[in-house]
Amino acid sequence: MAIIKCPSCNEKISDKSKVCSHCQYDFLNKKSSTGMNAEQLASQKKMKHIKRKYSLQMQAMISIIMVLGGALLWYLSGRGLSSLSAIGGIALLVMGSALYLTTRIRLILFRKSS
Question: Which terminus of the chain has fewer CB atoms gathered within 10 Å of its CB, N or C?
């Protein structure tokens, strides 16, 4: 008896099981409870992976726009701390930088996990 991963939910189960106890995937008919076969499940999993990567890349782009917008706002307001727009520009710059660094770390970890 061996332990395998269910193609539907990736949970560990016995290779002797006829149905996954977690997601009810039917190993005899090779269909999930939603009627998808193993090939369709693999395709769906790949699409989720692509969407997750795209989402992280878009978050990185938004943070870059925040950094550029904050720097521009700070520059146009006189490059000091005398006005509310300058303080807002610096705050936007700092928040965008922190978001960018966090997103890049998440992207690196995402690539290592896949």
Answer: N
pLDDT, mean over the chain:
86
Q: Contact, 1 vs 14, CB < 8 A?
A: yes
Q: Which of 12, 16, 9, 4 is nearest to 38 (CA)?
A: 9
What tens digit of pLDDT does each residue of 74-114 get?
A: 999 887 788 899 999 999 999 999 999 999 999 999 999 87
CB-based contact 73:85 (threshold 8 Å)? yes
* Token pair listed for 3: 């332990």
How do residues 19-31 score in pLDDT, each as one tens digit?
Answer: 787 777 777 776 6
How does strand 3-5 pair with strand 12-14? antiparallel
Cβ atoms 92, 69 nearer than 8 A: yes
Domain coordinates in residue numbering, the chain: 1-34, 47-114
